[in-house]
């Protein structure tokens, strides 16, 4: 059967494809806006999707339009989880990466109407009144191939995981480049014969080649120790999601000690081109204060969301005057005709968990 793929987010154009079909391959060629998929015109008769004739995933060298073999796609895992050392392509942002270890999170999806049991109530003063049921879902801590960072920097921060350099000073932050959290459905697994298939300064510190294992990369003691020591402030526990007029917003909060980090992903699920223009936050602290924050764009950008580049992801930080609180708000989105609409940011809790988490003071090996 011919391999089948949908054009959407692979280093600017390739994305998720039909999970019912075998998928072995994509080839990409360097274009004016990054790396673009090279796709035959004839569709697959079985599903109407583009018919990809090659049998290997290819990547272009940055110095010219020369294709080089990277690996071979594997079947998606419909059940169970991917193991440490699994190579993958990100189905939305298109970068190459490798799985370090999994996290089990609770997703609170406001697009799903739940029964009254096992639901999370709204925070005080938030928009709406419905309760949301949490569902367990697998995410992964991953390394991003540094060769792909320039091609995704306009759509996803590659230094999204930050730590406090000193827990006595909440202003001193530093980041780990090329460390990300990826949902199970965003993993497109592949294999490679290379012993160092991912370029990242932590790759050989954390992983070793093991040809007798599948996937053929094992965790070093360094990775196990790093995970154990930094687990409290790396851990992903709650994920919040809501869709407004085909714009889905996903929020993942993290406690860092004295302040919180939150990662936000906006994704255009429709066909209309839109642009984020403004943000409007409401931040409630259990000390009784309610703060309102308004501003242009996010992290200095006003990203455009289209079918070709449907998603944008960024991280930011917030401090409270109390151990816990809540955040919620809206993004002002502009259509191509100049009209606007507001996209809801799902309410999420900021919990310090001081009883069982020591404040982090940087990450260590």
TrEMBL record:
Pfam families: DUF525, YccV-like. One of its GO terms (molecular function) is DNA binding. InterPro entries: ApaG_domain, ApaG_sf, Hemimethylated_DNA-bd_dom, Hemimethylated_DNA-bd_sf. Transmembrane segments: none annotated. GO terms for cellular component: mitochondrial nucleoid; nucleus. PROSITE patterns: APAG (PS51087). Residues 241-357 form the ApaG domain. GO terms for biological process: error-free translesion synthesis. This is Polymerase (DNA-directed), delta interacting protein 2. It comes from Oncorhynchus mykiss.
């Amino acid at each position: 059967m011919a391999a089948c793929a949908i054009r959407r987010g692979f280093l600017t154009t390739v994305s998720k494809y039909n999970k019912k079909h075998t998928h072995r391959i994509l080839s990409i060629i360097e274009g004016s806006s990054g790396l673009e998929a090279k796709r035959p015109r004839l569709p697959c008769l079985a599903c109407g999707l583009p018919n990809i004739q090659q049998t290997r995933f290819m990547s272009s060298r940055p110095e010219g339009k020369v294709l080089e073999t990277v690996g071979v796609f594997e079947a998606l895992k419909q059940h169970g989880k991917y193991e440490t050392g699994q190579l993958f392509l990100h189905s939305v942002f298109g970068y190459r990466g490798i799985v370090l270890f999994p996290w089990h999170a609770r997703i609170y999806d406001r697009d799903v109407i739940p029964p009254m049991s096992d639901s999370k109530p709204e925070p005080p003063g938030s928009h709406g009144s419905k309760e949301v049921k949490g569902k367990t879902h697998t995410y992964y801590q991953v390394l991003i191939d540094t060769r792909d960072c320039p091609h995704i920097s306009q759509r996803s921060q590659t230094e999204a995981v930050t730590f406090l350099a000193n827990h006595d000073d909440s202003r001193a932050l530093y980041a780990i480049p090329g460390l990300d959290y990826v949902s199970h459905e965003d993993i497109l697994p592949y294999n490679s014969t290379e012993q160092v298939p991912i370029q990242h300064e932590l790759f050989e510190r954390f992983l070793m080649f093991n040809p007798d294992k599948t996937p053929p990369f094992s965790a070093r003691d360094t990775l196990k120790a790093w995970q154990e020591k930094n687990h409290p402030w790396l851990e992903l526990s709650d994920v919040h999601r809501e869709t407004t007029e085909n714009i889905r917003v996903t929020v993942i909060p993290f406690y860092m000690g004295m302040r919180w980090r939150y990662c936000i992903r906006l994704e255009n699920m429709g066909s209309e081109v839109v642009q984020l223009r403004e943000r409007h936050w409401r931040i409630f602290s259990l000390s009784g204060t309610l703060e309102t924050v308004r501003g242009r764009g996010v992290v200095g950008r006003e990203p455009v969301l289209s079918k070709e580049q449907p998603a944008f992801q960024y991280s930011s930080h917030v401090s409270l005057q109390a151990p816990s609180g809540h955040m919620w708000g809206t993004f002002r989105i502009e259509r191509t005709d100049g009209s606007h609409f507001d996209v809801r940011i799902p309410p999420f809790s900021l919990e310090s968990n001081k009883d069982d988490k020591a404040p982090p003071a940087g990450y260590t090996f």
